[in-house]
Automatic annotation (TrEMBL):
Main function: Reversible hydration of carbon dioxide.
Name of the protein in its database record: Carbonic anhydrase
Protein family according to the UniProt entry: Belongs to the alpha-carbonic anhydrase family.
GO molecular function, one term: carbonate dehydratase activity
Keywords: Lyase, Metal-binding, Zinc
This enzyme's EC code(s): 4.2.1.1
Any Pfam family matching the protein: Carb_anhydrase
Source species taxonomy: Bacteria, Pseudomonadati, Bacteroidota, Flavobacteriia, Flavobacteriales
Catalytic reactions of this protein: hydrogencarbonate + H(+) = CO2 + H2O
Length: 259
């Protein structure tokens, strides 16, 4: 009788132990979040699912397809690019999603009478934004931040043509393996992009990567920069293939063409 009771008790303990293991496994699975990517089960169409506390399912997301005939027009008065030749790039890294150059305090923009400082530059291939449905080989994002945390991103589309001395400089620090970085601490002059002379589109959107934060000021320049095919290919070979987010709906937002 004692032997039977002992065997029954052991059986119960095993069942409880197994149930605890299963429950703990479920709890662990619930708290283990997949890392986002640009392909497969963690691609952009799944970001809202795997990044539950993000804004990736928000109403005012980026990128968008800018249809010129549908935009409002305004005289260009609210943007001033304040880039100079003395700003330092601190480092470059391959973060697994793009090649990113980090900047020390220096280059800035004045947008809507608010000063924001350039924090980093990264790249997407092909372009994330479209103009009249046209996809460009590459898009450069210049990310700025003001003292209140407001984000303003300049989107510069890239078109293949002649070599770019700026991209030759950028790519002199490549190749770079995923997760690796290099200290640079050199001056860079971005004024050669001539952004003050270019017309642009502006709208309210989001970051194009998780957490897809909204209320981001977007400025997308109508005229593309020019870089060589080899420069495009070299940058492409150092990034994930097709590191772009799919087009997002406007949901009633206005896009302004600043001429």
């Amino acid at each position: 009788m004692i032997t039977r009771f002992f065997n029954y008790l052991c059986f119960v303990l095993v069942i409880v132990s197994c149930n605890d293991t299963v429950n703990n496994s479920k709890d662990l699975a619930l708290h283990t979040e997949k890392h986002w990517s640009y392909s497969g089960e963690t691609s952009p169409m799944h970001w809202e699912e795997i990044k539950r506390n993000s804004s990736c399912g928000g109403e005012f997301q980026s990128p968008i397809n800018i249809i010129h005939k549908d935009v409002d027009s305004a005289k260009q008065t609210n943007l001033k690019i304040l880039y100079n030749a003395t700003t330092f790039i601190s480092k470059v890294e391959n973060n697994g999603h793009s090649i990113q150059f980090d900047f020390e305090l220096g280059d800035s923009i004045n947008y809507n009478n608010n000063i924001s400082y350039l924090k980093q530059i990264h790249f997407h291939e092909p372009s994330e934004h479209k103009i009249n449905g046209i996809v460009y080989p590459i898009e450069m994002h210049l990310v700025h931040l003001d003292k209140s945390g407001q984000i303003t991103v300049l989107g510069v589309l890239g078109e293949e043509g002649d070599e770019s001395s700026l991209f030759e400089f950028f790519e002199s620090f490549l190749p770079l393996k995923e997760g690796a970085f290099k200290e640079i601490n050199q001056h860079v002059d971005l004024s050669g992009l001539l952004l003050n002379e270019k017309q642009y589109y502006s709208y309210q959107g989001s970051l194009t990567t998780p957490p897809c934060t909204e209320e981001v000021n977007w400025i997308v320049f109508k005229e593309p920069m020019i870089l060589s095919v080899d420069e495009v290919l070299k940058l492409k070979s150092n990034m994930p293939i097709n590191n772009y987010r799919n087009e997002q709906p406007l949901n009633g937002r206005k896009v302004v063409y600043n001429y």
